[in-house]
Structures are given as C-alpha cells and as structure tokens.
Amino acid sequence: MKSPIRVAVTGPAGQIGYALLFRIASGQMFGPDQPVILQLLEVPVEKAMKALEGVAMELDDCAFPLLQEMVLTSDPSVGFKNANWCCLVGAKPRGPGMERADLLKDNGKIFIEQGKVIDRVAADDCRVAVVGNPANTNAMIAASQAKRLSADRFTAMVRLDQNRAASQLAKKANVPVTAVSDVFIFGNHSPTMFSAFHLAKIQGKPASQVIGHQEWLRKEFQETVGKRGAAIIAARGSSSAASAANALVDHVHDLMTPGKVHSISVKSHGEYGFDPEVWAGMPVRTTTPGSYEVIKGLPLDEFAKERIAVTNKELVDEREMVKGML
Length: 326
Ligand code: NAD
Ligand code: LMR
Fold this sequence. Notes:
Layout: E1 5-10, H1 15-25, E2 36-41, H2 46-62, E3 67-73, H3 76-79, E4 85-88, H4 104-121, E5 127-130, H5 135-144, E6 154-156, H6 159-173, E7 180-181, E8 185-186, E9 194-195, E10 201-202, E11 205-206, H7 207-211, H8 214-226, H9 228-236, H10 242-255, E12 261-267, E13 279-286, E14 292-294, H11 302-322
Parallel strand pairs: 1-2, 1-4, 2-3, 4-5, 5-6
Antiparallel strand pairs: 7-10, 8-9, 10-11, 12-13, 13-14
Helix pairs in contact: 1-10, 4-5, 5-11, 6-8
The chain binds nicotinamide-adenine-dinucleotide (NAD) and (2S)-2-hydroxybutanedioic acid.
C-alpha cells in the first residue's frame, strides 16, 4: 500500500468543491492505488463550515477505501500543512455580465495570503493548481509570494478550455471525442484564449483539413470555446461546476502521469512570444510526476501569432492591475 498523499482543497463547501471531492476520494485524480488525506479549507463563516461538515458526512457515507482522513478547517496554516497538492478553488465566481478579470480585486487578495502560507507550511514537493478566477493571474499572484517553492510549481487550469475545444471539434466533424488530439490552449482562461485549431488532429489528420471550414474555425469555434463559461452562467444561473471539477481532475491526473501531453497555464519564459512574467496556457509534456516541460517550437501562422498577442496583452494588463498588491 502506498503512503497517503495530502491534498488541500480550498472552497470545499462550494459548487466545484461538491463535484470535486468525491472524485479525488474515489481515486480518479491520483489513481486507484493512491490513498489520500483531504485537507479542506473553508472561510471562517458558520454557514460555510456547517455546509462543509455536511459534505464531510457524505464523504464518510461513501466509504471510499482510499480516503484515509479528512481535516476540516478555516485556518490556512492547518489546511495547507504538509500538503503535497493544493487545489485552489475557493474564490468568488462571476455573475452574468461580468468578465473574470472583474474578480481580480476581491479574489487577488485570497491568493496573496494563500501563496504565503503554502510556501511556509506545505510539503517540499508541493504542487499548486489554481482554479479560482481569473485563474492565470491568481496563479501568478500566489507564486509571487513564494520563496521556497519555485514558480513552476504553480499552475492554473486551462483544461476546461481544452476539453471544450475537443468536444466542439468532435461535434463539428461528427466523430467521437476520442478521435480528436493535439488540442492546445494558448494564453488566458478568458474569451481571448487561443484554441490552436491549426495544430489539432482528427483521426490523425489536420483538423482544419477534416473540417474544411476555416471561417468556422477562426470565428465561431474560438468564440464558442472562449465564451462557454458565460453561456453556462446565462443558462444555469451559476458558473460551471461539474465540468470545472472534471477539468481539474484531468489537469492534476495528467500532471502526475509521465508522457502526457496537455495544456496547462504555467509561468512563461518567453515561449511563443508570451511576456516572461505572465502565466499563460501552453502545451506541456509531463516529465516526472508533478513536473513538466513546455513543448517548444510548434509552428504558429499569422492568425495564431495575432491571437497570442491579444491574449498576452490581456495577461500583461491583468498583471499591471495587481502590481500594487504583490
Ligand atoms: P462557489 O461560490 O460555489 O464556492 C466557492 C467556495 O469558496 C465557497 O464555499 C466559499 O466560502 C469558498 N471560499 C471563498 N474564499 C475562500 C478562501 N479564502 N479560502 C477558502 N475557501 C474560500 O464558487 P464555485 O462555483 O465553486 O467557483 C469557485 C471559483 O472557481 C470561482 O472563482 C469561479 O469563477 C472559478 N472557476 C474557474 C474555472 C476555471 O476553468 N478556471 C471554472 C469554473 C469556475
Ligand atoms: C468557466 O469557464 O466556466 C469558468 O471560468 C467560470 C466562468 O466565470 O466562466
């Protein structure tokens, strides 16, 4: 039996938390032979802590063989203590008519504090995955507070965009989603993100050849993926939850699986023209569990370069907005 890993999750009493915890505890994130200890960090508000107790009761009632222990707390230094993974979900979601960057003022503060505490108390091998929006810039904020843990340990999720893009391409080509590969997301988790259709494959052939409809790929496809979050808020009245939790399971699972090729938001080192101080979605290959290398040198045509410049500018602007906080 492997020794358990400690997984800290913030916002466990929220919407995503409710869709996420059961999947971690059942082994879908770390594998069917990896025991876990869940360290659940909520805000110190009675209603939230009470709701968290209810979620913990339900986790107990699942009798998951891999769930060794649960820690319920509103103290970040307890929640992140010795954590091997920190899933930073807890933050305000946007409502109708808002952009994710509108959350920066309120949510940014959370990531300042959590970045500091994680750096102080988490395990030496700790990895951090940020979901709370605006996720890219929040990851940059948390990483800016760390002295012990290097910047590459802090990633943000663009996997929901990758999954959305794969699903849209499959529908358009009328193939199962398993036929779609090499779907990479560049840039921000926002409507400016670039879903690189020119690199995507369908049954091993270039997606643009199979679909044969450049205008759809450049316009409707980009907009559907980029504005899917807002479409879900308009339809459901609240933001995506189960699909976001599913994307986080994929993000962490693939980061723990050597050889996996996927998109995550990482600190740029100037690859593909991104400013070296932003966290941008990029294609990566997992090297060893928890570590990755950015896949470099993929070809970019003029359209791709233009789109990357737009999403890069938005990331630079977000960084400027929070400069005073760092
Ligand atoms: P929610 O309001 O249902 O739940 C958020 C939970 O976080 C609440 O229980 C709240 O009490 C808790 N919380 C707030 N501040 C906290 C803190 N400092 N420490 C610990 N817990 C804290 O929201 P949700 O629908 O679960 O969404 C959470 C975040 O995820 C939002 O910012 C949302 O925009 C974002 N999101 C991101 C993606 C993505 O792809 N990156 C997808 C969906 C949602
Ligand atoms: C999403 O993409 O569904 C999330 O980021 C939630 C949102 O605000 O759109």
